[in-house]
Amino acid sequence: MKYKIYFMFLMMAMLCVTSPTVAQTSQKMTVPTSIDKWITTTFAKGKTPPFSFVYDGVHSQSFIRKWRHSIVKGEGSDGVVTYTISYADKITGLKVECHVKGFQEFGAVEWVLNFRNEGGANSKQITSVKTLDYSALSTIGGEFKVLHAMGSNHDRADFRPQMTTIKADAPLTMSPMHGRSSDTSAFPFFNLITPDNRGVVVAVGWTGTWFADIAAPAAGSVSVAAGMKTMDLHLYPGEAIRTPLVAMLFWQGEDYMTGNNKFRRFVLAHHTRKPSAELGSYSPLCGGMDWGDPAPCNEYGCLTEEYAVAIIKRYEFFELKPEVIWLDAGWYEGSGGWNANWWNSVGSWVADKKRFPRGLKPLSDAAHSIGAKFMVWFEPERVYDGSRLAKEHPEWLLKVEPGNNLLDLGNKEALDWLCKYIGDFMQENGIDYYRQDFNMPISPYWAKHDEPGRIGMKEIRHIEGLYAYWDYLIERFPALMIDNCASGGRRLDLETTSRSIPLWRTDYQYSEVNGYQCHTYALNFFLPLHGTGTYHVDAYGYRSSMSSATVCNWVLTGQGVTVPGMQNYMQQFRELRPYYLEDFYPLTGLQDHTPDTVWLAYQLNRPSDDTGIVVAFRRRDNLQPEIDVQLRGLKSEATYQVLNVDTGESVNLSGEELMRGLKLKLDMPYLSLLLKYKLQ
Hints:
- The protein is α+β, with helices and mostly antiparallel strands.
- About 25% of the residues lie in helices and about 30% in strands.
- The longest helix has 20 residues, at about 455-475.
- The chain is globular, with a radius of gyration of 26 Å.
């Protein structure tokens, strides 16, 4: 009998320290009729909430309902409700606060999980934090699928979408590389799809190393967990931390694009800054300054005040007038000269006196004189050995090896200095828009400098500091636009989209247009705002770069482009840009679009005015002169005029005919097609 009792206690102990295989919250997959009720029911007292963690080796599912619970409704606006739900341990003083927002129009809910130690001693170890721990049940039998994507790795396949079927023996695990949220291996936006065309789009807001695990523990159900990948820490008395933001947008409709387009509209409505009344929610048409000119100059290492002002005036002279003048890397101390390098001088954020003796103010004045904003590149987190900051404040830096250092944004003194210094620099130099890059793996710096028993704390504090820095700039400059680069599109997540736009979405080889087509096609599944460079003025070239934003990288002093060609591109961009802000449909599906043997075609539909466009490319090695596609989102009984922009030919077809099938034809390879349609 004693052995049986001992065995029972042993099994109970094992259950306590082992994470349950069943998710915290299990619900039928359906769009909530009331998002307010969904929140108050899901997070109600006595209910196990849709998040979990392990505290002192014990899984929260076994104790969270016993902790002191409170739910307080905050002030809402425009169909948005807010709640703060807290769970407090009376014994140790650990408090968990869940800050929840609900969006009735979109059937969406999001929350951030905070931990606070209100006790008088160090907390117990907090591990295995899943900000989202949720299980969905299908209303019919069948398999669940996930539409997800790769991250950015300066490759033609950057952001490539893919569909994965979730099987009991084959769960899907996603996580980015190197501590940047969309670096290489994963993208923090995905659509979980039921067999009966319902689903939930999940987004993670964490500009570090997040994870998402999706599994099928039983027939007719799927579980999804997401959060920060590495955390094993205790909190000091009075100390608090935040964890990743997670969002769930519920949908049902014809297929997964119903959910993806609903999510695109949600991002525009609630996770996009609109700093300029002139641009609205559009991202801008930018003009560069003869990048890398003349050879062998690196980036803007040979740019001078006189030359920069002349380039800006040349835009005006040619009647081009971009909305933003873009100054990239190489303007600062140590980067000037044909044999210098922008890379190894970051950390000296003063204008190169030899080339810009009056600072950058003459450049901003010139930009403003032609009616443009002025944007300047910075990379404040990476501090190179020998730079001003490395010499003056080595105590603020995290070092792993010679060369690059990380400015520790978790260091309050360093963060306060950065906010004020860059803010003052922008104000003194008349800088309107701020471009932030970040060109190194960051996770090794966090891992090396974590304190014993506090794994993950450096990452948390740095990410909190990054958000605080951007929020400071936004508060100080209410009309500010932030461009988020990070080696090209490697820090895209729900927190960064709320503050910034990726105007340079990938560092994939410059001007290779077939890759640009792939990136536009891929990113449009989830994000409506993103841009890349354009180097061409032929239709195939500039349509390949077309998106909701663009950077004109023409050499205005060279022979490769014509003034009428540049003028035509800018006109085309301004005319087509609004189409990228409503519904996107991938007409050539989820096939691999990276080969030069394929067609690539997509539709942009505007329900707001019953118009749209079709953009198609027949690649150089493609042998098919025509393909059949099916348009989406039209009114079946209505009549539409369809115009071929290149030939001027038009035809009237019903919405039903267009959705049943439309033939796209290009007689020769390496040609593009642009169709415009409108309701008659």
